[in-house]
Each structure stands twice: as structure tokens, then as C-alpha cells.
Specification:
single chain, Muramoyl-pentapeptide Carboxypeptidase, domain 1, six-stranded antiparallel beta sheet, globular
Length: 508
Amino acid sequence: MARIIVQTGQEWVSMDSINKSSLLKILVIFVLLLVGTNLATYLFFADQDDALAEEDDPRVIRFDPDADRVEAEDGTEMFWEALDAITSHYFYPVDKQELVEGAVRGMIEILDDPQLRFYDPDELEEFKMDTRGVYGGIGVRIIEAESEIVVFETFSGSPAERNGLAPGDRILEADGNELTGEGIDFAAEVMRGPSDTSVDIKVLRPGAEEPIEMTIIREEIQVSTVSGEMLEDNLGYIEISGFDSNTAGEFTEIFESMEKEGLSRGLILDLRNNSGGLVDQAVKIAEQIVPEGEIVRLVGQDDEIKTVYQSSAEKRPYPIVALINEESASSTELLAGALQDRDAALLVGQTTYGKASVQQLEHLPGDNAIMLTVANYFTPSGRNIDKYGIDPDYEVEMPEIIRYYHYFHPSLLEQGDYGSDVEMLQEMLEILDYEIDVTGYFDEDTSRALSRFQVDAGLESSGKFDDVTWVELREALDVASREQDKQLEKALEILDQAELWENIGGND
């Protein structure tokens, strides 16, 4: 019921002009009038609709009973009444759709689950593009460094590579849009587009004073998540960087090709830094290398078993080692857990991230969607590794700088600077065998060590860190990371220890 505010008048009377008898009569008459008017008012309005009384008083907020709303359930009335109140009476203009979207985002936020999120139509299309692994663009991966858009890598055979874009290039503009300070999502959106359309970009090369302009014709870009090579002595190496809709197909093609070439000494499966992706793709790969039996089970609310995935594969006639680390997560852990529990492989590296929840996309009106956690997965032995991760059979640490040097890209560092960027630079030089104390302060010793690196790389010896130095430093670390990969070294070592494989399911 709405509350009606009634305002009454008052008349002030001088007490000196009224005697006690008259005063008593007046009071009696006043009380009778008050009771009578209240009774009449009650009888008149008793059978009237509440909305009618509310319409008579403009100071009372009235809710429209015909407002567009769903049937309110217990606990939701507050939401609908707040929405009606804001859209009907808030002084400033509002967009009802934005209010509803904000409410949905708020519901997701209050659940405190980092895997949940709301997708508006643009975000949903971006998500679908990522999981498809195919998009229209120029074939470049970018990062944001100090508000500038920097080329991180170009895809092999892509329009970007053919036009000479290279790591370290700073993309200043795309189709007349300034990119600096606009964020990486905006830059990606501007540079993507349908195949056979063009994009004009302005690029500043490392060491150059003036930018150059180029026009690149977009193509359909398929992002590869699987790479592999046959090493010496019939040893296979396959790296999986993510699980999109093409991953299992890529893996199958490389894996079958290796087996035809005589894969026999063993297979190294590199799952490091793989944050996961589509569950079905991890399952399809497991179906090829996990011996016959259970791969994983998905468990929903109230411990209800939703799905059990099974493999029917024969055990492989050679040993398998999987490399894992702290960045191995989600679907990657599903695959690693199946390999470990089913004695199909030994795991080398460090404990995985610990995300064993499964998300499902739920579509909403208006081309919106929400990503919901719908289940946890359990490994074949019944382990729920969510928030715990999977421990390797052989723990081998790697220097953090080897894992993260790709993401290091400050614009300029010189003597007198200090902080985490300087500390990372010093650690890189140390990994490359330049004597230096890691202090986080850019002193003369740091400048001298950097100068020695620049001379060795064929650069001008400035003792300052700039874009040109970054390109050469990253290439040197690419080589060092392979040469100093102690986890890979351990995998190669244990592959040759026949006694370790006597009871492993992947060994005849």
C-alpha cells in the first residue's frame, strides 16, 4: 500500500476571549466533526482501488501495475520495484537495458567466482572468435606497454609478416584511429575485420625517428594452438598452448604424422603455460593417448555425476612425459590428471594452477550471455584438484624470468631508474651469463653489463635499454630458454630410464 501524505490547516485562537464552558463546547464539537469526517472518508474510499488514491496526491510515488516485468518470485520484488521506481521517477534520463545489464553484472560479481562473467553482444562475439580460433585480421599478437600498442609476435605466413611487421614495432594508428592510451581491446577491434578488406596503420620501428605507413589486406587468420617436431632418435615433441575448436584436429594431424615417421623412443607433451579452454577438445586428445577406461567425470550440484568420459584407445608402445607448471590450468589439468591417474605418462615440472571447475555459456535475450560454473571435474582416481592443482611426479623448478620475459617491454631504462622493470632486466642479463647484482637499481654496473650485451648483439653500445635492445634481448632469451630448460632436460633423462616405465600403462 502506498502512503498518502495529508496536510491540514491550523487556526490560532486567543484563550483570553473564551470562557471554560465555551471552550468545552468547542472541543466537543471539534471531536465530533473529526470522528465524522474520518468515518465518511473511510466509507467513501474503502472500496476504491489504491491507485486512485495515489493519483490524487502528486507527492506519492505510484508504481505502474502494467509495467513490463516477469512474475516476481520470493525475494525478487525489491529488484522489480527498484527498477520501476528508477525508470519512472529518477530525475535524469536512464536506459532500462543498461540498468538490467548492470544488475546482471552485479549478480555475477556478488557470487565471487572469477570464472563467471557477463558478455554483451560485442564481448560475446569476441569470445566466440577466440574459441573458434579463426578471425578476420592481419595475423598479429599485440601487447600494451606503457599505454602504447606493441607487436608481440606475427603469425607465420600472415599478412602482418608479409608486410614486414615485427616484434617491437609500435602501432600508433589504425584507419585514422589513435591507438595510444585507448587500450588493447580497442586496438584489436579496429585492426580486425572481414577478409579482403584493408586497414591502414602507422608504425614506429625500434630505433626509428619517424613512423611509417602501410596498408595491409586482412585475411582469415587461423590461430594454431599445437606445434610439434620429431627430435633425434625417433623422439616426438608436441606443445599445446590452448584448447580451441581446432586443437584436437591439429593434435591428431601432428600425432599421426609422427607415428607414421616412426615415433618409438617416446613422446614429450608440453602443457606448460596452457590456461585451458574447451573441455571437449582436451577429452578428444585424451581419447588418443590415455589407455582404455575413464578419462574424467563431471560432477554437478549435490554430487550428481553429470558425465563420464571414457577412452577406448590402446596403450601406446612408448613412454610419454607431460610437462606442467603453475600456469597449466583447467582443461590442461583435466588431460594431465587423466595421464597421471591412468599411468599413461609421468608428469615433470611444478604443481598446476588448480582450476577444476567447468563453465557453460548461457544465452540471454538481446544477444547477451553469461558464463556459469556448472560442474567440477574429478580425475579417474576420484581427485577433486580444484584449488589444489596436480603435483608432478618429478618436481623441477624454472627461473621465473624464463617464464615471463616475453611480457617485459618498458620503453626506456637508464642509470638512476629503479623498480621491478630494472630488476627483471638485471635477471635477464644474469641468465645470459653477464655478471651483475640483481638489486632493482640501474647503476653503473648494470649499464656496463648492458653495454657488453649490446656489443655482443652488434648494437651501438649505449648502456641504455631501448626498443632495439629489447628485440635483441628477447631473441637471446628465446635461445637461452631452450638451452636452459631444466624441465625438458629432466623429461629427456627419465625417458631413457627403462626401469621407471615397467608399471606405466603407456609401456608394453
